[in-house]
Amino acid sequence: MRIGNTEIRPAGGGLGCLLMILFSIVASVVLTVLLNLLL
């Protein structure tokens, strides 16, 4: 993935990229649930 003239390579190639996407989805869901429990 390129942003301007800087190329960003996900750690671990395609698998690492998928893991990062999955982790971000899970983290956002967990944060949402925690916020709902606290408020």
UniProtKB/TrEMBL annotation:
Which residue ranges run through the membrane?
12-38
Keywords (alphabetical) are: Membrane, Transmembrane, Transmembrane helix
Q: What is this protein called?
A: Uncharacterized protein
